[in-house]
Amino acid sequence: xxxxxxxxxxxxxxxxxxxxxxxxxxxxxxxxxxxxxxxxxxxxxxxxxxxxxxxxxxxxxxxxxxxxxxxxxxxxxxxxxxxxxxxxxxxxxxxxxxxxxxxxxxxxxxxxxxxxxxxxxxxxxxxxxxxxxxxxxxxxxxxxxxxxxxxxxxxxxxxxxxxxxxxxxxxxxxxxxxxxxxxxxxxxxxxxxxxxxxxxxxxxxxxxxxxxxxxxxxxxxxxxxxxxxxxxxxxxxxxxxxxxxxxxxxxxxxxxxxxxxxxxxxxxxxxxxxxxxxxxxxxxxxxxxxxxxxxxxxxxxxxxxxxxxxxxxxxxxxxxxxxxxxxxxxxxxxxxxxxxxxxxxxxxxxxxxxxxxxxxxxxxxxxxxxxxxxxxxxxxxxxxxxxxxxxxxxxxxxxxxxxxxxxxxxxxxxxxxxxxxxxxxxxxxxxxxxxxxxxxxxxxxxxxxxxxxxxxxxxxxxxxxxxxxxxxxxxxxxxxxxxxxxxxxxxxxxxxxxxxxxxxxxxxxxxxxxxxxxxxxxxxxxxxxxxxxxxxxxxxxxxxxxxxxxxxxxxxxxxxxxxxxxxxxxxxxxxxxxxxxxxxxxxxxxxxxxxxxxxxxxxxxxxxxxxxxxxxxxxxxxxxxxxxxxxxxxxxxxxxxxxxxxxxxxxxxxxxxxxxxxxxxxxxxxxxxxxxxxxxxxxxxxxxxxxxxxxxxxxxxxxxxxxxxxxxxxxxxxxxxxxxxxxxxxxxxxxxxxxxxxxxxxxxxxxxxxxxxxxxxxxxxxxxxxxxxxxxxxxxxxxxxxxxxxxxxx
Length: 794
Hints:
Elements: H1 4-20, E1 30-35, H2 42-53, E2 59-65, E3 68-69, E4 72-73, H3 78-81, H4 85-95, E5 99-103, H5 107-113, H6 118-128, H7 131-138, H8 143-153, H9 158-161, H10 166-173, H11 181-191, E6 199-204, H12 226-236, H13 252-286, H14 308-323, H15 341-345, H16 347-352, E7 353-358, H17 367-370, H18 383-386, E8 407-410, H19 414-424, H20 427-431, E9 436-441, H21 450-458, E10 463-467, E11 492-495, H22 500-515, E12 524-528, H23 538-543, E13 558-560, E14 569-571, H24 580-593, E15 595-599, E16 613-619, H25 623-634, E17 639-645, H26 648-651, H27 654-657, H28 662-667, E18 675-678, E19 692-695, E20 699-703, H29 713-717, E21 721-724, H30 735-742, H31 746-761, H32 769-772
Parallel strand pairs: 1-2, 2-6, 5-6, 7-8, 7-9, 9-10, 10-12, 11-12, 13-14, 16-17, 16-20, 20-21
Antiparallel strand pairs: 3-4, 15-17, 18-19
């Protein structure tokens, strides 16, 4: 309700941006209509000053001012607001830089104003009469009764009433300008004249105009009865066997509509033709220097304990540099390095990326995208430079509309930024120009614009939204930061990388899919980042220990932990692993499919599924706690595999459902298989088989977010799961302390692992009496705590 008019405004802005950047864009004016009750929507008021300041002159909003809403008549406070609501609205829009056009009175009213005393009648209608009373008068359909009531209650216009007949007063009060198509056309033409100021048309109307339900409370959901339909049919000359009739083609109306219809159809054909032409152009440009690469190849060798938000800054900085570096070396500026062959493949995608943020660009590492690249009307002198006070270490925010300006700056208005994100993301479908908007926002504050976010996904906008920092990992900044919602919205894909190289692959994949229109059902990309550093070397350290990456491991042999020696086993560090590039090539496929094994003990001596094996699913920053828990559990003889979830949507959500969770079940091989293990010492024989216990591999999940993000793993595959997540409001503090407060720290992970292993072992098996006569399975105990030493949480 309050969103499409805002989208229209940012579409107008997107058209101007695309045209200023040299793309083939037609001239266009953008229109939106809304009701007077809807105009109380906060989303509209947030956008009002923004559109004026950005000089979006090709935008017209039309307000259907009928003084009614769904629940009934709108009753406003005329005394406090110093006028009716249309007056308040007009003052508001004028104060925010808009042109305002009031279309109040129809032709008959205007004739009445020309009579002696007509100015008094006009003032009475515009200033004296309250909207609620006007609605009550509109319900008086009897001319005599209306005349009598007005004459008795409003002596200020009594002298003018003497010059009117009862029927003329009835007609005059019901004659609103919003039903005069010539006046509306004139207002709409007027709204297109100022190229810099948006226009607001207030069209006064009568809800239910010319119907019996006119002005009646509750008419929002009312329908005319059959008798009234017959009367309307008769009055318009439509024959009884015709539901809908055109104007006669030989009439002036018919000729006009034929001409206008042909014009509109021609413009639609031209628009589609332009769209296809642009699509072909960009497909050629994307492949001019080879297909877009799978990675931006950020060098992490020298990075000291980086985090994923830092990685976002590295990626956008590189794209900004590529976008603003000429392909021809003769055009390079001083100190500008020529693009490498791989960077040339990124040239066109980099030029199409538009960055924006609601006043958090610097704190979300978008500084290089902002510095000297603000796209906005240039009406500001660079006073800092003139007075020699500019800080060169901070971004230059002086606006311009040059080709290199690709950053859209917003105040603290998440809703506006989110709507802008959605509008820019529609240009590929509307014009065939695959501009890709990239927005950053603190993840928690996506909720401030969740309505707009949903709409972006609803109308299949293509964008990248980076919610960063996210979760209680941001706890040092405040207790409010924490709640990371379980969004299950169609057309969305959510990512939460842990290692920086994951971010590179995910980000590059999103850009490629957008460019090649290979993102059906996942055009809305949400990537969550954190500001908690991690050791990047851990990735290959753990991957290289997995049996699947070992060279020379013979059939029947097992691996052991370094320092251990068992028959027919080889110490893990004695076998060479695949090369780094080979391992990462395999890993990338898993990362982009939604999850991968970071720690996997399959193939190690003593690895007994159904006895001492479980899977820990971890996402985002909490992978650190999962790794620590896995290492400590190994000391107790428990093999805790760690599976890093990169995309809950792909692994467990709507996108995973499309292929029956193929990656989870078939690639990662998470299943509900029963593993038979003896409950007594030794090898069971004969009747001792009744002591076997069938056990599945249980699951523990841990993540910095609400439970719904990962808590359905067990239900999908049919195993016991313990989900560690955020279940209460947070506190301010260091992440390590806040994690403990929420029960998602490494100690909590260990406790959860022991709990699911013990409870799995305690599951009873009901053996058929007919099959085993009097035999009964044995059970180790009643409570899972009895199977582990008491855990000290201090």
